[in-house]
Amino acid sequence: MEKKVSAVLVAAGSSTRMGFDKLSFDLGGETVVQRSIRAFAECPLVSEIVLVAGKNRAFLEQQAGACTKPVQVVQGGATRAESAKNGVLAAHGELVAVHDAARPFVSQAVITAALEAAAACGAAAPAVPVKDTVKRAVRGDGKTVPEHCMVTDTPDRSTLYAVQTPQCFDRAAYLAALDELDAEKARLVTDDCSLFELTGRPVQLTQGDYANLKITTREDLPRAEQKEGNDMRIGHGYDVHRLVEDRKLILGGVEVPFEKGLLGHSDADVLAHAVMDAVLGAAALGDIGKHFPDTDPAYAGADSLQLAQHVARIMREKGWKIVNIDSTLLCQKPKLAPYIPAMRENLAAAFGMPVDAVSVKATTEEHLGFTGEGLGIAAHAVALIEKL
Predict the structure, then answer these.
(1) Is 308 helix (H, G, I), strand (E, B) or coil?
(2) Which residue of 210, 336, 338, 339 sits 20 to 30 Å from the alpha carbon of 187, by its own alpha carbon?
């Protein structure tokens, strides 16, 4: 792309919903605004950066000191739209990328895609499909708070997108649209793309990123930053069972065809047992022997996936969420690869997790040790949990 690009970072907000200056918040050695500046400084398409300030002008000038590209700080306006306009007016590029400085996690891929689309059609913005069902609702007093609102309809979610920044424009077209916008339409501008939409100009959506979130409230901060104390833990689990004749081989809730099965008080699902121990251990809640003792006849032949569901309930009651599970089966034979997808699905369902958060692997022992000699099967598991 041959056009010169200016990045306009709007940083004039008051952070009233946050309760403190969110742009100064420390993200592992960088402030929020420093992370945003760096994202555009590292983009080879961007030649200059314009920071739009409010009462924080001195702070922004200090934060921009280490930037490797030309930076200018300009004063914002009374509204987000006025601040963006001031930034675009100060920019020198043929293309402008208007970005919320409070979106520090924007990726190079998101920036590049929006700029390339704007160069081709005049205006573009990154967007992601809306995940949740959306309702339109009203209440008699005209207020917009959810309490006592009555649903009027449900828009088709397949046509809805959450728009992000940077919203990228041909600068000349942007300024022309500003001149065409009358006072009545100006009140309808909710984001930078609205300017093009209200003046009949096309806007193309490009691939956004759910991680490209805007920090608006404390809940938007990375979890490690918004909580105090030991809120994430890791647990390890290990289990082993002997292979014997006249038993079914159950692994991760899957019956694997084989001449032998695992010996145990329950169904002897060594994989499920290791995973349960990892989850319980992370929360310091003991192991499966404590919760499901082999001296209790109630668990004779028990389905280990049902026991896993019980462990999941215990974790929720104790205020823990299981983030992900990684496990490894140590098995010389039979070959387990064809059954691993079903094992992952079973464990994910039992623990109430997405399948992509559950990993199951299998390896042989090269005929070494009791597992390598085919005398038994063992499993290791690691689980990450966090406070709800």
Answers:
(1) helix
(2) 210
Q: How many CB atoms lie within 10 A of CB 222?
A: 14
SS3 state at 71 = strand
Task: Indicate the annotated binding residues.
Answer: 239-241, 265-266, 273, 287-289, 292-296, 363-366, 370
Structure tokens at 315: 């974790």
How many Å is the Cα radius of gyration of the chain?
Answer: 28
Higher pLDDT, 185 or 132: 132
Long-range contacts of 76-85 (CB under 8 A, 24+ apart): 76/10, 76/11, 76/12, 76/52, 77/12, 80/10, 80/12, 80/13, 81/186, 81/189, 81/192, 81/195, 83/10, 83/12, 83/52, 83/54, 84/8, 84/10, 84/52, 84/192, 85/178
| Contact in structure between 96 and 3 (CB atoms under 8 Å) | no
Could you give the CA distance from residue 239 to residue 270 in angstroms, rounded to a whole number?
6
CA atoms within 13 A on the CB side of 251: 34
Cα torsion at 20, 24, 25, 29 (round to 10°)?
Answer: -160
- DSSP letter for 338, please: G
- Give the residue numbers of the binding site for a divalent metal cation: 239, 241, 273
Among residues 361, 351, 356, 355, the alpha carbon closest in space to that of 385 is found at 351
pLDDT tens digits along 277-318 = 999 999 999 999 999 998 889 889 899 999 999 999 999 988
| 376-387 vs 232-244, strand pairing mode | antiparallel
Residues 6 or more apart in contact with residue 66 via CB below 8 angstroms: 34
Secondary structure letter of residue 221 according to DSSP: S
- Give me the mean pLDDT over the 239-247 stretch: 94
Please give the helix or strand (H or E) that residue 192 lies within, else none: helix 192-198
Nearest to 331 by CA among 247, 237, 242: 242
